Amino acid sequence: MPTAEPPYRRIANDLAAKIKTGELQPGDKLPSTRELAEAYGVHMNTASRALSLLHDRELITGQPGRGTYVAERPGQ
């Protein structure tokens, strides 16, 4: 029996889809962890885990003290 997708993966996949479709462009600032947690109705740790997954996929980059941004795509 298939299990439900974990919330952090759902958030990461949603944001990744927005990046791939161009809704979120390279250089766009992402919402804060707190804002994502509120928007998706999850704990901040879950939102943070989703951002970590996107960082591992090299779709986003963090800038200490400034926020998290959509990464530049290779070849652009």
Describe the structure.
With 76 residues, the protein is mainly alpha-helical. The chain has one domain (7-70): Arc Repressor Mutant, subunit A (Orthogonal Bundle), CATH 1.10.10. Helix content is 47%, strand content 11%. The protein has three helices and two strands; from the N terminus they run αααββ. It has helices at residues 7-21, 33-40, 44-56, and strands spanning 60-63, 67-70. The chain has a two-stranded antiparallel ribbon. A hairpin with a 3-residue loop joins β1 (60-63) and β2 (67-70). The chain is globular, with a radius of gyration of 12 Å. The mean pLDDT is 93. Pfam families: GntR. Residues 5-73 form the HTH gntR-type domain. This is Transcriptional regulator, GntR family. One of its GO terms (molecular function) is DNA-binding transcription factor activity. Keywords: DNA-binding, Transcription, Transcription regulation.
Give me the CATH architecture, please: Orthogonal Bundle
What is the residue-averaged pLDDT?
93
Q: What is the helix fraction of residues, given as a range?
A: 40-55%
Order of helices and strands: HHHEE
The quaternary structure here is: single chain
Sheet of most strands: 2 strands, antiparallel
- How much of the sequence lies in strands comes to 5-15%
Give, in spatial order, the strands making up the sheet with the most strands.
Answer: 1-2
Distance between the termini: 42 Å
> What is the rounded Rg?
12 Å
The computed structural class is mainly alpha
The general outline is globular
Number of strands: 2
CATH topology group: Arc Repressor Mutant, subunit A
- CATH-defined superfamily: Winged helix-like DNA-binding domain superfamily/Winged helix DNA-binding domain
Low-confidence stretches: none
GO biological process, one term: negative regulation of DNA-templated transcription
Protein name: Transcriptional regulator, GntR family
Pfam families: GntR
InterPro entries: Bact_HTH_transcr_reg, Tscrpt_reg_HTH_GntR, WH-like_DNA-bd_sf, WH_DNA-bd_sf
